[in-house]
């Protein structure tokens, strides 16, 4: 028996019955379930369902319904392929499905006795609501219907609804429906905006049109106009979920076309608020009412068309409802629409910049519309009167905004200098221009002058000297485009996309977030806060943060071109030469400090000296330190963590000692001594035996400075307690789960010196064979010959923490491979997934590269490998180095989306760095050959035996 769906008023939820073979069994179960419900017994009389022939659709009838739906969607596909506008296709879909639903309703009505048909038509109606009522349909959109009944308790109407809905499901239409009377509709709409807003779009389809007219009249009176502020506040509150304190981020890199900020839901919000405020919903009517400007109406229509056609494209491509613009879809659409590369930007980046142009415009207009149309409560107006005050003659400053009287607005918006003066006043009072003032500035923007007047330049620099207020102020100036007038180069990064998953936001949004992060250090009492507070000219830092990515999307190194732009901007703002040089240096070096901290041995004295020499002064070092933290933490959620903070602070501390003689903490030897003392204290608290304590003291002297200064004392103590129990026959594997990063750490320790030479590449092979993604690795070998290697991995075979059995299995395999009981190649053959789909093409499109640095360290050669990530890549690289008789002394592994940056500190077997140009060419050539073979053969190379 087909699946049946029976709908009742919302106080009794939709009840779905799956495949009852015997309908008598269903009726028994149905009545047993509901006879105990007093509410149900009061609402309904027992219902007898007519199961006479003809009420259950035949296969031919179902097939005809499916064919009609397929015809509608195929026609939409044809219209799309012929280049029809998105709104035209949506209108076609809406009209076609309207006809389908009306014809289906009439067919279902004819299956009822003649005596009931007129009653059903007079007492019931089918109402299109939500997107269906709006006519805002994509090929696989849900159809939202309200089955409206005059009394809400008629069994015949419920049976009609059940058969109608079942036929919709049979036709493969996703339907969202409810069955209510007018009183219930209004009661629920007053309580829940998610019920009220679909009724704004209510449109009659079938039945008694008088019912929908009555519903619309009472809805306006009882839900909208009598409680307008509550309705508007509820609509905004529902939309504001996930917005930041300064508004919604419209630059999400895998946006939902419908629900993400700057998506179609923002247009719906404008419709709902417009209907509550003015009684009209469409863009042109709101323009005629003066609610939106002519230019905003034009932008809204352009965004509506762009997003609608894009959503239709996604539905047609997926063959189902699919509103998420994933990276794969971005690549497909950019290719199908024949976007071309321009000025260093890939086609997909140009397509997404167009998307973000529309979404950010839509988001900005929505924010302005909401701010202007949202009624202020009596309490808010009273507070403005109590705490507000006049300032500088023309301004009125309240608790959250700076207002300008209408008679002064023309004067304030009359010149660039006066506009900047307003923003300077707003920054000093830590408020923002009111929506009315911001809109006036946007309408009256002057042309960007070839040169700024001394007054305008001075005012702008004074704005950049602000701290806590600077982030919101610059965001507002960016939204009104006043920032573009002052610094024209900013326009280049507006809506600019980098197609990778390392960055979560467009360049402009990332930049604004970085400024907000930097100014938060004013209230931070940690190392970054202390450094920020000691910076004498914060305007230099703040401008460097604004400009640090200004060179992206061009054909050259963005740090280099950005440094040149910084010089131009500094001159435009009439800054002193030494500050211009500092700002340019910060932009040029803004990636260097993170690279050194995260990818180099920061205990290497020569490296520290070279870097300190390039920076030149303690104040520039402080600015670069805070810029680096602000930059990394603005990349996206989870990109800044305690590990990175500790490494960067350690590097800052070491460089500060060289540049100033002062220090955030202390010299390396003092730091190491302090760490050792902390470790001893921890072990004493754990009641470690005197014999073990003596051996621990010996072991502590064998650890490298890097291990001791970059490993928490508790972890060192844990490692030592394991090491003292090791003998030549033992390999210890300790696993720990980190819920904050969703990763597992495997620490492998052994005192067997025969394993040291090849243990690293073997361990990477084991982890890769078990499908563990290695996101970081740390190698430590003491002078006593003890190996302490750490791997942080993500186990994608499991959601959340892997089970104990998985951890035990990985640990056992690590031991077996190190003891040569099994080879890595055998593990790959055993764990290979046959029939698995091949890896997709890399999204970033970057080429493989091997850099060899033989100058930064006196004792080791540094090898950087940049390549597309694939399972087995790290194993391939480490095995290649082993086969070329290179010893890996330290490794730093990092992965960004589909790109790896692996750094290896290597030595010859005699513990010296690599020597001679021929040897360096051999190593580089061997690694490039290994990368080439790996890329060509994928997993097949792991079936070969190692030599």
UniProtKB/TrEMBL annotation:
Residue ranges annotated for the ACT domain, each copy included: 862-942
Keyword Repeat belongs to the record: yes
E.C. designation(s): 2.7.7.59, 3.1.4.-
Keywords recorded for this protein, A-Z: Hydrolase, Magnesium, Multifunctional enzyme, Nucleotidyltransferase, Repeat, Transferase
Domain HD, residue spans: 507-618
Classification via InterPro entries: ACT-like_dom_sf, ACT_dom, HD/PDEase_dom, HD_domain, NT_sf, PII_UdlTrfase/GS_AdlTrfase, Polymerase_NTP_transf_dom, UTase/UR
GO terms of molecular function: [protein-PII] uridylyltransferase activity; phosphoric diester hydrolase activity
TM region positions: none
Catalytic activity: [protein-PII]-L-tyrosine + UTP = [protein-PII]-uridylyl-L-tyrosine + diphosphate; [protein-PII]-uridylyl-L-tyrosine + H2O = [protein-PII]-L-tyrosine + UMP + H(+)
Family annotation (Gene3D superfamilies): cca-adding enzyme, domain 2, Nucleotidyltransferases domain 2
Activity regulation (record text): Uridylyltransferase (UTase) activity is inhibited by glutamine, while glutamine activates uridylyl-removing (UR) activity.
SUPFAM superfamilies in the cross-refs: ACT-like, HD-domain/PDEase-like, Nucleotidyltransferase, Nucleotidyltransferase substrate binding subunit/domain
SMART domains, A to Z: HDc
Region (Uridylyltransferase): 1-389
GO biological process, one term: regulation of nitrogen utilization
Domain writeup: Has four distinct domains: an N-terminal nucleotidyltransferase (NT) domain responsible for UTase activity, a central HD domain that encodes UR activity, and two C-terminal ACT domains that seem to have a role in glutamine sensing.
Family: Belongs to the GlnD family.
NCBIfam families: UTase_glnD
The protein's role, per its UniProt record: Modifies, by uridylylation and deuridylylation, the PII regulatory proteins (GlnB and homologs), in response to the nitrogen status of the cell that GlnD senses through the glutamine level. Under low glutamine levels, catalyzes the conversion of the PII proteins and UTP to PII-UMP and PPi, while under higher glutamine levels, GlnD hydrolyzes PII-UMP to PII and UMP (deuridylylation). Thus, controls uridylylation state and activity of the PII proteins, and plays an important role in the regulation of nitrogen metabolism.
Name of the protein this chain belongs to: Bifunctional uridylyltransferase/uridylyl-removing enzyme
């Amino acid at each position: 028996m087909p699946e049946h769906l029976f709908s009742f008023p919302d106080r009794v939820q939709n009840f779905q019955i799956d495949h009852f073979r015997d309908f008598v069994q269903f009726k028994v179960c149905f009545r047993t379930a509901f006879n105990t419900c007093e509410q149900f017994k009061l609402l309904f009389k027992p219902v007898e369902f007519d199961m006479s022939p003809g009420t259950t659709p035949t296969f031919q009838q179902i097939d005809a319904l499916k064919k009609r739906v397929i015809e509608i969607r195929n026609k939409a596909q044809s219209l799309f392929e012929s280049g029809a506008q998105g709104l035209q296709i949506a209108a076609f879909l809406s009209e076609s499905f309207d006809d389908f639903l009306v014809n289906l309703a009439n067919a279902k009505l004819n299956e009822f006795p003649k005596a009931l048909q007129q009653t059903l038509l007079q007492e019931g109606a089918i109402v299109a609501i939500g997107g269906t009522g709006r006519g805002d349909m994509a090929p696989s959109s849900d159809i939202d219907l309200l089955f409206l009944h005059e009394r809400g308790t008629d069994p015949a109407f419920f049976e009609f609804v059940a058969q109608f809905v079942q036929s919709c499901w049979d036709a493969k239409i996703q339907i969202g429906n409810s069955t209510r009377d007018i009183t219930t509709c209004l009661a629920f709409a007053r309580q829940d905006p998610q019920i009220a807003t679909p009724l704004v779009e209510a449109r009659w389809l079938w039945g008694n049109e008088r019912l929908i007219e009555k519903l619309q009249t009472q809805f306006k009176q009882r839900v909208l106009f009598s409680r307008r502020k509550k309705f508007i506040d509820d609509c905004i509150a529902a939309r504001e979920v996930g917005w930041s304190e300064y508004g919604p981020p419209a630059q999400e890199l895998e946006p939902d076309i419908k629900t993400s900020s700057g998506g179609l839901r923002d247009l719906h919000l404008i419709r709902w608020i417009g209907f509550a405020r003015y009684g009209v919903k469409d863009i042109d009517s709101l323009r005629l009412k003066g609610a939106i400007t002519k230019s905003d109406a034009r932008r809204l229509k352009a965004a509506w068309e762009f997003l609608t056609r894009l959503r239709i494209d996604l539905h047609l491509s997926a063959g189902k409802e699919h509103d998420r613009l994933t990276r794969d879809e971005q690549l497909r659409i950019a290719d199908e629409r024949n976007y071309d590369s321009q000025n260093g930007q890939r086609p997909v980046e140009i397509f997404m910049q167009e998307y973000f142009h529309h979404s950010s415009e839509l988001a900005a207009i929505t924010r302005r519309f909401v701010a202007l149309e949202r009624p202020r409560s009596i309490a808010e107006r009273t507070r403005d009167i109590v705490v507000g005050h006049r300032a500088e003659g023309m301004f009125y400053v309240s608790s959250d905004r700076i207002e300008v009287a209408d008679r002064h607005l023309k004067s304030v918006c009359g010149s660039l200098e006066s506009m900047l003066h307003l923003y300077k006043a707003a920054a000093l009072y830590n408020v923002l221009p009111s929506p009315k003032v911001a809109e006036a500035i946007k309408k009256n923007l002057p042309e960007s002058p070839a040169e700024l007047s001394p007054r305008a330049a001075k005012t702008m620099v004074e704005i950049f000297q602000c701290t806590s207020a600077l982030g919101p102020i610059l965001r507002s100036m960016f939204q009104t485009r006043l920032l573009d007038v002052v610094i024209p180069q900013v326009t280049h990064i507006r809506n600019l996309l980098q197609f990778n998953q390392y960055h979560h936001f467009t360049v402009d949004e990332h930049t604004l977030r970085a400024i907000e992060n930097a100014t938060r250090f004013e209230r931070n009492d940690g190392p970054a806060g202390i450094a920020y507070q000691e910076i004498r000219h914060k305007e230099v830092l703040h401008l460097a943060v604004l400009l640090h990515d200004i060179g992206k999307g061009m054909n050259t190194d963005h740090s280099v071109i950005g440094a040149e732009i910084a010089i131009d901007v500094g001159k435009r703002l009439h800054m002193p030469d030494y500050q211009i040089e500092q700002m340019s240096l910060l932009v040029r070096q803004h990636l260097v400090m993170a690279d050194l901290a995260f990818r180099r041995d920061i205990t290497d004295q020569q490296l520290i000296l070279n870097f300190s020499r390039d920076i030149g002064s303690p104040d520039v070092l402080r600015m670069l330190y805070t810029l680096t933290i602000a930059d990394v933490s603005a990349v996206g959620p989870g990109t800044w963590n305690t590990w990175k903070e500790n490494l960067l602070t350690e590097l800052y501390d070491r460089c500060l000692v060289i540049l100033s003689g002062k220090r955030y903490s202390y010299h390396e030897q003092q730091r190491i001594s302090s760490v050792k003392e902390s470790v001893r204290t921890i072990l004493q608290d754990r009641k470690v035996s005197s014999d073990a304590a003596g051996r621990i003291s010996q072991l502590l002297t064998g650890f490298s400075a890097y291990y001791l200064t970059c490993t928490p004392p508790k972890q060192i103590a844990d490692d030592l307690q394991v090491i003292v129990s090791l003998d030549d026959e033992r390999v210890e594997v300790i696993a720990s789960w980190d819920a904050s990063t969703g990763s597992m750490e495997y620490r492998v320790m052994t005192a067997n010196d025969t394993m040291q030479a090849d243990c690293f590449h073997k361990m990477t092979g084991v982890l890769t064979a078990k499908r563990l993604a290695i996101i970081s690795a740390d190698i430590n070998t003491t002078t006593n010959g003890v190996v302490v290697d750490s791997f942080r991995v993500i186990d994608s075979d499991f959601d959340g923490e892997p089970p104990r059995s998985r951890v035990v299995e990985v640990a056992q395999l690590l031991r077996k491979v190190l003891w040569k009981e099994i080879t890595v190649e055998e593990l790959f053959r055993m764990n290979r997934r046959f029939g698995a789909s091949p890896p997709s093409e890399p999204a970033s499109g970057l080429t493989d590269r091997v850099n060899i640095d033989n100058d930064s360290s006196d004792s080791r050669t540094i090898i950087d490998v940049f390549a597309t990530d694939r399972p087995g890549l790290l194993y391939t690289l480490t095995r290649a180095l082993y086969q070329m008789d290179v010893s890996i002394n330290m490794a730093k592994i990092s992965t960004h989306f589909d790109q790896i940056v692996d750094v290896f500190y290597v030595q010859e077997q005699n513990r010296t760095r690599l020597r001679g140009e021929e040897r360096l060419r051999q190593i580089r050539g061997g690694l490039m050959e290994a990368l080439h073979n790996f890329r060509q053969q994928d997993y097949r190379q792991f079936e070969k035996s190692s030599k």
